[in-house]
Amino acid sequence: MSIAIVLICIVVLILLITWGKLNAFLAFLAVSVLAGLLLQLPAQKIMAAVQHGMGDTLGSLVSIICLGAMLGKLVAESGAAQKIAAVLMNAFGVRYMQWALMITGFIIGIPLFYGVGFVLMVPLIFSVVYQYKLPAVYIGLPMLAALSVTHGFLPPHPSPTALVTQFGANMGVTLLYGLLIAIPAIIIAGPLFSRSIKNIGAEPLEMFRPTAIDKTKLPGAANSFITSLLPVFLLTATTILSYISGDDRSIKGVLTLVSEPGLIMLVSVLVAAFTLGIACGKTMKAVMAIYTDAVRDVGMILLIIAGSGALKQVLTDSGVSGQIAAALQTWPVHPLILGWCMAGIIRICVGSATVAGLTTAGIIAPLLASSSVNPNLMVLSVGAGSLLFSHVNDAGFWMFKEYFNLSIKDTLRTWSVMETIVAVTGLAGVMILDRIISL
């Protein structure tokens, strides 16, 4: 009966967001209270569980997500993103322009949040389309596939970062595994898939013609690349060092501190304030204003993550999480595939990849705790499933349709299929890694 109540609550959550148009944070809170009542959690413990869940979930995430937003915003505002794109396009030439844009999207997509990356990159795509008379969808889709993959797979993006915390995974290891899976997923969903849609016509609207920053005011190429990718470099380096450092406790202690994602993001943001701020002629006050705007941009994302934590805690305190884990263990389905399917179903129903991933985490976490599944791979499996088949209930679907001025049919043939390819390829990569790791 308890499992049936949980399923009812998930359906109510989906209906509140899709049919009722309720904000996801409010929907999570309402369903958390409803779940507590239906699962007969003592009345005085329901709000305590909600508050505990919100605090626990946000405690280790606020700094990472906010600092990640600050770095991404400065990368965009300083012109570093434009410089990276220009360098890559000059290096690849017109013949391989598609690959240049795809790599640009991947590099810039790591520090930038998806919405910011989309709005920043689409004008760049159109500048190439107008200048070289190339098919817009054919040229642009690989770059957007790269943005989507970084959004679903790689920290410090909100959903994978939150999943790392909820599953007890390691941020650096998850990033390394995510990079291994992301590259083939982007290539298959980008350049390879786009060959089949080369003849789809698209006339981007004139209003989206880019307003580029003066080339003389752009930061240097090395500065742009190194600063944008500094969190990746530091996370990768500290993760590798922790594996080769042996059992020396003093070294282990130092590495534990310097490998903390929050500290790495803080160092990256402080470095960026000078390399992309002061060194580029901005005052510290102007840089701090950019950082302040960035935090405003992610306020609602933090609330949605907090709401998902509230629902997770209610399910845990009621004891139903243990029942779900016990029931799921009897299913003849690999836990990684199960996590992917759950996230995919919720994604199709709700439209939001973040909501899909976080809702799945609350259900699948107890199963993960009682199984031998690698938590880093579960983060990636749920992240891949949360990207499955974007359609008319997803804001990204409409952004792509309107920016590229496509019909709904052509948007489904291009954007929706691309997202599905990313999700399926991601799951395949996770299962291959699982086999390799378990050898």
From TrEMBL:
Q: Does the keyword Thylakoid apply?
A: no
Protein known as: Gluconate transporter
List keywords of the entry alphabetically. Answer: Cell membrane, Membrane, Transmembrane, Transmembrane helix, Transport
Q: Spell out the Pfam families in the cross-references.
A: GntP_permease
Q: Where is the protein found, in the record's own terms?
A: Cell membrane
Record-annotated membrane-spanning stretches: 5-20, 26-43, 55-76, 96-129, 136-154, 174-193, 225-244, 264-282, 294-311, 337-365, 377-400, 412-433
Against InterPro entries, the record matches this protein to: Glcn_transporter
PANTHER family reported for this sequence: GNT FAMILY GLUCONATE TRANSPORTER, HIGH-AFFINITY GLUCONATE TRANSPORTER
Gene Ontology molecular function terms on file = gluconate transmembrane transporter activity
GO-annotated cellular components: plasma membrane
- Membrane topology annotation: Multi-pass membrane protein
Keyword field contains Transport = yes
Source organism's superkingdom?
Answer: Bacteria
Chief localisation class: membrane
Family statement: Belongs to the GntP permease family.
